[in-house]
Amino acid sequence: MSIKAVSWALEQDVSDPIAKLVLIGLADRYNDERGIAWPAIKWLAIAGSCSDRTVTRKLSKLEELGLISINRRFNDTSTYGISAMGGGDTALSGGDSLSGGDTALSLGGDTALTSGGDSSCLINNKNNNNNKPIKEKSGKQKLSEWEPTQFDKEYAESLELDWQEILTDMRLWDEKGGNKAAYASCKAFWQTWCRKEGKSSQRRLNRQQSASGGKSKVLSEGQKVFADNVTQKYIKAFGSQGFAYKMVLVDVEAFMLTKQTDDDWMALGNGLPSPRDKGWM
Fold this sequence. Notes:
two-stranded antiparallel ribbon; Arc Repressor Mutant, subunit A
């Protein structure tokens, strides 16, 4: 994993959320010493939560944007070069380049080639911001001062999430901590939050389907209100131990779709006492 490459990838403004995930996946598998990445398409499909074909299309798109270069090899894993961080006519050299300790060689303003001489290490300085230098950020930004961009909103929607609900939950979480949370990349925090919520929603669906024997059984509106009340009691009692509202709500709703025995609650594996033991149900 290359921390510098991942940090760079997170800062790139890619309008396609899936393509952004593929780019981050490439950066995660970037080798600083060799100046290339060579992840399997299958692995990138997992990173992007998409199909192999979609990965192939997104890689071509990233190549067209000048964010990566691809060395396609017949009957072998392709290798990928990643655009250097920064702008101007030369790639960052020495310890500051994505090629690790190798010195980068300028080839006329738009491209740079690592000293290893491997064509697969070709690094484009062009990006989707018309080769404008990436502004250096000083310090960290508070979540309370950060606002999601259109890309951030579309990222949440690509995971079938309501971005306004995500922002509200994040703001409430931050407010409980005194609005002190600050990060080098609030965008990365947003994406991490969305991915967790997306997995939580899928977990809820799986548990409800399992509890109902695979049938599309769902709670009524009245039952959802009751589940919310029970969850609020859990958060009041155990919230300080790190239990999040939505994660507990998933379990309470899933439990309500079972026969509501002690074994049904224990099968959820959250470590919390049964709502029946607490007298809440």
